[in-house]
Design goal:
The longest helix has 13 residues, at 43-55. β1 (8-11) and β2 form a beta hairpin. This protein has seven helices and two strands. With 148 residues, the chain is mostly helical. Helices cover 59% and strands 5% of the residues. The protein has a single domain (8-142), classed as Serine Threonine Protein Phosphatase 5, Tetratricopeptide repeat (Alpha Horseshoe).
Length: 148
């Protein structure tokens, strides 16, 4: 049985991918708290800080900074961050566009039963060669979470 994220899921304009979105309340104190927790390795805080950078809420909009924080949370196994990092790779936002990397991150989240990730993985797969799919699947199979 797949589970769905308890987040508002939106289609990004001009993108075939579904991104996990939530909007944390933004105050200077909240930003400081999030940054402190994120720097200490809290994956949920890293994800929320990434969303703030992606949306430009309380901080300057910065796709590369969003990728940095999504990656840190995704590497710890946070499915929402894996989905959003996959979207960033799929669109080439803050990182070079890469179907292999997009598929890889979507596949990791899909393995956790996240329906949006399964949809995104299937979309990415349609744009890939057989060889690219094999590479992405091998990377996924070899992946293990990296706690901070």
């Amino acid at each position: 049985m797949s589970r769905s994220l308890p987040l508002l899921v939106l289609l990004i304009a001009l993108s075939p991918f579904v991104v996990a979105q939530s909007t944390p309340s933004v105050t200077n104190d909240r930003i400081s708290e999030l940054r402190r927790a994120a720097e200490q390795g809290n994956a949920r805080a890293q994800f929320n800080l990434a969303l703030m950078y992606y949306n430009g809420e309380g901080v300057p909009k910065n796709a590369a900074e969003a990728v940095k924080w999504y990656r840190r949370a995704a590497e710890q196994g946070l499915a929402e961050a894996q989905i959003n990092l996959g979207v960033m790779y799929g669109q080439g936002e803050g990182v070079p566009k890469s179907s292999i990397d997009a598929y890889f991150w979507f596949n990791l989240a899909a393995a956790q039963g996240i329906e949006e990730a399964q949809i995104n993985r299937d979309i990415a797969e349609k744009k890939m060669t057989r060889e690219q799919i094999v590479v992405a699947k091998r990377r996924s199979a070899a992946w293990t979470p990296k706690p901070e």
